[in-house]
Write a structure and sequence with these properties.
Layout (H helix, E strand, L loop, with lengths): L5 H9 L11 H11 L3 E3 L2 E4 L2 E5 L1 E5 L5 E7 L20 E2 L2 E3 L7 H17 L6 E7 L10 H10 L6 E4 L11 E3 L1 E2 L1 E10 L3 E2 L9 H13 L14 E8 L7 E2 L2 E10 L5 H16 L4 E6 L7 E2 L4 H14 L4 E3 L7 H4 L5 E3 L13 E3 H18 L3
Parallel strand pairs: 5-8, 5-9, 9-20, 10-19
Antiparallel strand pairs: 1-4, 2-3, 4-8, 6-7, 7-21, 11-18, 12-16, 12-17, 13-15, 14-16
Helix pairs in contact: 1-3, 3-9, 5-6, 7-9
């Protein structure tokens, strides 16, 4: 294997069955590759009650500033029914110019391209001014408790500081070069319970149907937009995800109705201010006619934005130089570990096309991996040019 080849490195990583939370040999592989190139490598394991222990990797080469952080995750989601795959999910087979396997897109391919570019810089410019740090977790697809968030705290306690970060998540919707993520929406989930009184459907005056109250409250939540969006964010959005009364009988009015909802919110809100607004809307819709209660899950997914700056433009320039496409700056999609990294340095995300991530037959064209490595190489050269 040539570790300075994104294709070779991605193929080797895919062959490591690192399904969350298993390390699967992926971090051990990266440790060997990085140590051979002169990086100082550590592999801390973090724990928390009720969650699996997770192994992580931190590596660094150089002692000076600026420090560019390269981040990602080697854990992958389960492959599902392996019999449905055209090629075995952990075989890393290359057929007709396409690399197949779980993690090819999300995100072993991105890690491979990123680190291959870094290893190439270290080999060809050993005196580059500054430092490269590498932060890889095995807990991104899992609870995200014993991974990046703790690894960053661990690094800070040791005196590590970062000036900028690239997270190699798959960000492009259609073609390589489409999109750079410069922020993410927050996520807040809640549960709404409406209390009624169980009774016979033939005697509704002796009962209180909570479904009617639930319809009223949900209509109040959705009656108006939470906001109109901002320059870099779309409008915040509330989606009702379940409504249930747990009632198998058609001749019984249920005594309780439950609904769950999730809100993807922009940087106009925090979880606390959003909870206040949701409760205000529920109270207004309920009046004195509906008995209800609401609860909200704790969340570490808050909205954030990396302002378009020189670093962001430098990455845009590198993408455009390789692809001919000026990437859009976006905050769309779900959450990522960037929500933790943003507390330590400006962070952006750029990686492969995400169309097959988490799917059966996840795959990436070899040519795209090679081009992504070239993009990262341009970013590194420009970043350490002075």
């Amino acid at each position: 294997m040539n570790p300075r080849s994104a294709v070779d490195l991605a193929q080797a990583l895919i062959r490591c069955p690192s399904v969350t939370p298993a390390e699967g040999g992926a971090l051990a592989l990266l440790a060997r590759v990085l140590e051979a190139a002169g990086f100082a490598v550590e592999r801390p394991v973090f724990s928390a009650p009720g969650t699996p222990d997770v192994e992580n990797l931190y590596a660094r080469i150089g002692t000076g500033a600026p420090v560019l952080l390269l981040a990602g995750h080697t854990d992958v989601v389960p492959p599902g029914d392996e019999g449905r795959w055209t090629h075995p999910p952990f075989s890393g087979e290359i057929v007709d110019g396409v690399l197949w396997g779980r993690g090819a897109v999300d995100m072993k391919g991105g890690i491979a391209a990123m680190l291959a570019a870094a290893l190439d810089l270290v080999a060809t410019r050993p005196d580059f001014p500054g430092s490269i740090a590498v932060l890889i977790t095995g807990d991104e697809e899992g609870p995200a408790i014993n991974g990046t968030v703790k690894l960053l705290e661990w690094a800070k306690a040791r005196g590590e500081r970062f000036d900028a970060c690239i997270l190699g998540e798959p960000t492009n919707p259609e073609r390589l070069g489409d999109m750079i993520k410069i922020g993410r929406r927050g996520s807040l989930s809640g549960t709404l319970v409406v209390h009624g009184k169980q009774g016979h459907v033939a005697y509704p005056h002796l009962a209180d149907n909570p479904i009617e109250g639930m319809v009223r409250l949900l209509a109040g939540l959705k009656a108006t937009l939470l906001d109109a969006g901002t320059v870099h964010f779309a409008a915040s959005n509330l989606e009702v995800t379940t409504v249930d009364v747990g009632n198998p009988a058609t001749n019984v009015i249920p005594g309780e109705a439950r609904a769950a909802f999730n809100i993807r919110f922009n940087d106009l809100w925090t979880p606390a201010t959003l909870e206040t607004e949701i409760r205000r809307r529920l109270e207004a819709a309920a009046g004195n006619a509906v008995r209800w209660e609401a609860s909200f899950e704790n969340t570490n997914a808050v909205a954030f934005l990396t302002e378009p700056n020189a670093f962001v433009r430098r990455v845009q320039d590198a993408v455009e130089a390789e692809t001919g496409i000026r990437p859009a700056l976006s905050t769309t999609g779900g959450t990522s570990d960037a929500r933790f990294i943003k507390d330590y340095c400006p962070v952006l995300e750029f990686g492969l096309v995400g169309q097959t991530m988490h799917q059966v037959d996840e795959r990436v064209p070899v040519a795209e991996l090679e081009r992504l490595q070239a993009i990262y190489g341009r970013v590194l050269e420009a970043y350490f040019a002075g």
